[in-house]
Amino acid sequence: MKVQCLKGFRDYLPGEMLQKERMLASVREVFEQHGYPPLMTPALEYAEVLTGKYGDEGEMLLYRFRDNGDRDVALRYDLTVPLARVLAEHGDIGMPFRRYQIAPVWRAEKPARGRFREFMQCDVDLIGVDSAAADAEMLVIGAAVMQRFGIESYRLRINHRGILTALCRLVGLEGATEADFLRILDKLDKIGEEKFRAEVAKIPGLDESGLDKVLEVVLCDQKDPAGVLDHIRSILGEDELANEAIDRMQAILEIVDAAGIASCCQIDPSIARGLSYYTGLVYETFLDELPQVGSVMSGGRYDDLVGMFSGKDLPAIGISLGIDRLFYALGELDLLSGEKQPAQMLVVLFSDELAPASFAAASRFRSAGIETLVYPKAAKVKKQLQFAQKSDIPYVAVIGVEESRAGTVQFRDMEAGSQEELSIEAVIEKVHAGRSPS
Amino acid sequence: MKVQCLKGFRDYLPGEMLQKERMLASVREVFEQHGYPPLMTPALEYAEVLTGKYGDEGEMLLYRFRDNGDRDVALRYDLTVPLARVLAEHGDIGMPFRRYQIAPVWRAEKPARGRFREFMQCDVDLIGVDSAAADAEMLVIGAAVMQRFGIESYRLRINHRGILTALCRLVGLEGATEADFLRILDKLDKIGEEKFRAEVAKIPGLDESGLDKVLEVVLCDQKDPAGVLDHIRSILGEDELANEAIDRMQAILEIVDAAGIASCCQIDPSIARGLSYYTGLVYETFLDELPQVGSVMSGGRYDDLVGMFSGKDLPAIGISLGIDRLFYALGELDLLSGEKQPAQMLVVLFSDELAPASFAAASRFRSAGIETLVYPKAAKVKKQLQFAQKSDIPYVAVIGVEESRAGTVQFRDMEAGSQEELSIEAVIEKVHAGRSPS
Questions:
Q1: I want to staple B45 with a disulfide (CB 3.0 to 4.6 A). Which of A212, B49, B400, B434 is the partner?
Q2: Domain limits, CATH 3.30.930.10, in chain B
Q3: How many beta-carbon contacts under 8 Å exist across A and B?
Q4: What is the mean pLDDT of residues A193-208?
Q5: Complex ipTM, two decimals?
Q6: Which residue of A has its CA nearest to B13?
Q7: Range B14-41+76-332 has CATH code 3.40.50.720
Q8: CB-nearest partner of B255 from A14, A88, A355
Q9: Do A90 and B13 lie within an 8 Å CB cutoff?
Q10: Do β-strands B72-75 and B44-46 pair in parallel, antiparallel, or remain unpaired?
Q11: Domain spanning A345-435 has what CATH number?
């Protein structure tokens, strides 16, 4: 019998999961600080709600089956289509509509290092408004998440679909072949100019005479966002779509500047993302110290997707956090909570007779806000101290016969290796003082 | 096309979900205060891990299917069997092992009012120890959850399997027929003594001469737990198993007394629960003001279950919160967070030109810990105030041309209906003062 975790899936054991839970709590806090409430949708949906939304490749990755009532059902593949379903089903939901959702999704992917078939998505979306303010809000939230994590050095690389479309027009492409061109453009960083030229030359209908201009836009070495926009306008200024995009970007930049996060934003005309989806602003986030991790936070404006079920015009913009990548990156940057377990204090269980005294002390510690574990069985003090050591519990209280009578405890600071007899009040004071050194 | 939530499932829309999230955050807080860290296991398991664990009825309710790699898989039915799988798979996990898990489980139940096919389970378990201290710890945690919720009037009704077995012996039953007897005993409250006698009389092998003694134990009208135990001992004292159970209960009572929660505990020899599972202490929790809701928190010692995969002897005790019932009950008792959305403050977007000023103010409010929403589009101030009203946002800041120049805001207290021009610092002070009236 296979007593093991399903292939492509994984457990988060307590130490790691505590750190992950702390990280998610921070994310929730940031979202709510910006006025976003949570939404929860079921893991399973009618298959026809999900099919036809993710392309042929996505379709193959759906966990789809017949349920016990012979319904055609599937596990959710992302959190966006279920959001669209909710908005169609609850037609009276007020607009603008905001929500965040942090929940697992399932994709029958080929498992690989760091890629699992169940992973958590973490999305925040603002529905019902197409404005520079709405666009800027997403960047503000993204930057607030990074700040809350203590990440100092990162770049929100932003672009606009209007600029990308204008670039395609420069080389005479429109419609289906646009995506091919942009897919190659997206790789320019990695493959270099020469290979880029060779690859795009294969696209049917490509007008090579415009390529120099495209590269002039994309390889712009201006650092200042306003300077980049001016540069883009100098080349694409005759394209109406590009002009609108540049105007919008300018308005967004003014807002993020006022919000104090302009220094983290960078205009990058090569950022393309999954373009089929997006209709306006797009962004990716890279950590300066860990570029190899890839984008940890991304998204954009997708005005045609959420209204697909309701037929209503529902402009939308969102940001999605790559929780697994972020968890890995925070670990690398030593920014995860150091806790491996939640207890600050271990109360030793000296003997069965003294269990009530130990529990009474534990209750008082907990009431004072100290996370406290009682060793669950009478055992040698040495063994219990070893448990505290192994579990990284910083403080230990031993209550023996004498201490129980005197209403005191032997208080042990595991790191300092010191031990002293103290009243419970004195222990509480010490622990509080140790937590907030001032 | 069915654009709707799958039959038997439900969405939690933002207002309700925010309250639920707040409730779950409290639960996590209590668990961690007692030194329990979280665990996360996948939604899907190999079917053979889950099958044969839940009885024939449970088996029928499994969501089981062949995955894209033709593996026989199933959605988890509870959080206990996955826990047992984790302990078998990670053999080097230290003991005693503690974890909590809050996660959805799936059962293809016939949907009914308040019963869904996806629901959240919330379990805390302590593995590797069989002791009165471990038993008492569960009751302490359960009481702490109730206290954290603000529930004042509830009863933790506790019993011990040893007492139940001794009751069965009084009427000559052992083994398979025991469960039938206890199932009827469990209903005694509802069906009354006469019907109870009639129903048990049908059990083959029942020795009716012992029935009076059974009823004498079960209908004990002592209130004081120590008195109940004395009463039980006076009747079952010659049964060794009962004696051991009574000794254990006595030790548990001393501990919960020391922990300050004895007044919430009540010994109730009729509490049986799903007996096949349990081997020692069992408990159910009822709210005095809402008895019709049923048990909101239950569990017990189940020493033979967790070791089933590893073959190791892994004594275990746990408590499971009925999150959905508790959510309903907290609503009825008016103990849920009143928030329908997280924002304390709405910053009005007066015009596109003033968007930067509004975002700058919002950033300062958020830095001061005030959850702040910016209206995402320039619109009439009246419309934006209506939005604040409808959304229950208590404070509004309007920044027009004059205010932007002067570095002030028009600060509106929605409830008081007052409005005044204040500096941003003054607004922050006012909001903080309004939050913690002292």
A1: B49
A2: 14-41+76-332
A3: 311
A4: 93
A5: 0.93
A6: A39
A7: no
A8: A355
A9: yes
A10: antiparallel
A11: 3.40.50.800
